[in-house]
From TrEMBL:
Heterodimer. Residues 10-435 form the THIF-type NAD/FAD binding fold domain. It comes from Chloropicon primus. The active site is at C171 (glycyl thioester intermediate). Residues 197-232, 548-605 are annotated as: Disordered. This is SUMO-activating enzyme subunit. Residues 582-605 have a biased composition (Basic and acidic residues).
Amino acid sequence: MVGTSAEGARRACRESKVLAVGAGGIGCELLKTLVLSGFEDITLIDMDTIEISNLNRQFLFRKKHVGQSKAEMAREAALKIAPNAKINAFHGNVKGEKFDVDFFKSFDVVLNGLDNLDARRHVNRMTLAAGVPLVESGTAGYNGQVTVHRKGETECFECQPKPVPKQYPVCTIRNTPDKPIHCIVWSKDLLFPGLFGEPTQASQENGAGEENGAGGEEKDLEISTRQPGQSARDYGATVLGEVYHDAIARLASLEDMWKERDPPKPLDSSLITAGLGKVAKASSAGGPRGAAGESASHVLGLTNSHAVWTVEESVAVFVLTIEILLEHHAAKIGMLGFDKDFDLSVDFVAAASNLRSFCYGIPQQSKFDVKGLAGNIIHAIATTNAIISGLIVLEAQKVLLKQFSDVMTTFVQHNPTRGRLLQRIPPQKPNPKCYVCSKAMVRLEIDVKKMTLGQLVDEVLCKSLAFKHPTVLVGPTMHFESGNDLEDDEVLHYGKQRKKILADLPGGPIAHNALVQVEDYSQDMSVEILVQHKVFEDEGSAEFFAVHGEVKGREEGEEGGGDEEGGDSDDDDLCVVVAEGEGAKRNDAEEGEGERESKKQKTLM
Ligand SMILES: Nc1ncnc2c1ncn2[C@@H]1O[C@H](COP(=O)(O)OP(=O)(O)OP(=O)(O)O)[C@@H](O)[C@H]1O
Ligand SMILES: [Zn+2]
C-alpha cells in the first residue's frame, strides 16, 4: 500500500469494525479477503438463502448448504480460515428496521457487495446519515468497479444518474415485436403470468388482462380455460393454437397495421402436428415426466442449452411444459412468475418467445440466451469478483488509515485501455444537484390532475427516489405518513388519503408549483420537491413522471416563467433514476459494451 507502514495497516485491519453487506458473488470473496488481510471484527448481512446456481462462484458454500442462510454459512466458512475473528452474521434485509442509523454508526467503514440499486441507495443514505465511509462495488461479467464515498468529501452513490432501465412501448410488445427481446418480454411478463401466475405489475403496465388496453390495436389474447375432463396435454395444444394461430391470424387481418411492415404469419398446422408428435413419442418412450422437477426440454432430449430449437421442438416444449406444470405443479398454478432458477419457466419462456419470433420473422434464440435475456443475466465471472473484493479491501484500508489522498475509484475493464485492465481515477466531488447528499431541491413533473397521493408515494417517492418511510407535507399540512409506529386510525386515514388526486388534496393541494416537503426519519432524509404540472401523452407508458435535480435557490425566479414546463431539459440535468420498476431488470444485458465503456460512472450490478 502506498506510503503505509505494514504495521499500521495490520493494526487498522485488526482494530476496525467493518460491516459487509451482501454475501453473494462479491461478498464471499470479500469476506475471505477480509479475514486473510487480518480484519477481526466483521458484521455480515444478507437476506438470501443459498441456491444451487450460486455454487459455481460463491465458493464459501457447498451443496449441503443449499437452502441455508448465506450470511450464516459464509460466517462458518470464514471462521475455518480465521478461527479467532469475531464475525456477526445477520440473515435479513439491510433495509430492516433493526439496521438503523445507530447500527450503522457503530462501524468504521461499510463495504457493499450488493446486486440491486434499491439496497445500494438505502445503504448510501444510511452511511451518509451515520457519517460512516462507504466502499461501494459492482461487477458485470468482466467489468467491475469500486468507489469510495465519504460524506461532504466525495460524491455519494446517488450523485450521478444511474442508467434508466429500458422500457418497451406497450404496442411493440403486444403487437409489433421486431427483436427477440420483445418476444421474450411478452412471454415472460404477459403470457407466462397470464397462464400460471398473478399478472405482474409489468404485465399490467403492458396491458395484460385488460380489454383493449392502452395503445393496443388488437384485443388481448383470448385464452380458454381448461375444460372439465380435458387432458393437460390437450389443453396445452389448445392454448398453442389460440396464441400462435388464432390470435396471430386475427392480428394479421388488421390491414391498417401492416402498411409499413410485414404482417405476422400464423403457425402452420403441420408444424403444430409435428411438435405434438414429438411429445407423444417422448412420453410413449416411458421416460420420467417432470414429476421430480424435470423440465420439458430434458424429457424431450433437448439437453444442449446452446442449441436453437426447431419450430417443432419449440411446439413440443411449449405443450409439454404446460402439461408438466398442470400435472405436477398444480399447487403453484396461479402463483408462478418467471424464475431463472425454475427450469420449467425458462423452458416455457424459451419456447413461447421463439414461436412468437417465428411468427414475426425474428431470429430465434437458444434456451441459454433466452434465459440470459429474460433474467437480465450478464454471466458472473468469479475472477472479476475476486479482483473487486481485493480492491474493496485496499480502499477500505486507506480509508481506515485516513490516507484519503490515496483513495481511488477503480474500473476493472474487459479490454485494456493504454495497456491497463484497471483504470483508476480520483473520487469525484459531491454533485451540488444531488438531492441526497447536497440537499438539492427535486423538480418533479407529474400530472397533478391524474396522479393520486398513493401513486406519488409508491411510484415516485419509494420506487424512484428510494425513500423507505416517506412523510409528505405541504406547508403545515401533513398529507401522508408511513412507518411501523402509526396508530390504527392513522393507518385508516392515510389509506383514504392515498386514493385522492393530488390537486384535490384538502388543506394544501399538490398542484402546479406546490412545494412539497418529504421526510424520512428512518434514512434521516429531508427533501423539498417543486411540483410542476405536466400532461404525459402516452398513458400506457411506465414514464408518467420525470424527476430532475435542482441546485437550491434557483427555483424562485423561475416560477411560471422561462422554464416552459421544464419539459425537455437535457439529460445532464437529471440527477435521479426515473421510474425504476419491475421491468427494470429486463434488458441491461442488451446495452452492450459500447454503452458501458462510454459511461464510466455507470454502476454495475
Ligand atoms: N436488501 C438486501 N439486504 C440484504 N442482502 C441483500 C439485499 N439485496 C441483495 N442482497 C444480497 O446481495 C447478494 C448479491 O450477490 P450476487 O450479486 O452474487 O447475487 P446472487 O443472488 O447470489 O446471485 P444471482 O443473482 O446470480 O443468482 C445476494 O446474496 C443478495 O441476497
Ligand atoms: Zn450525492
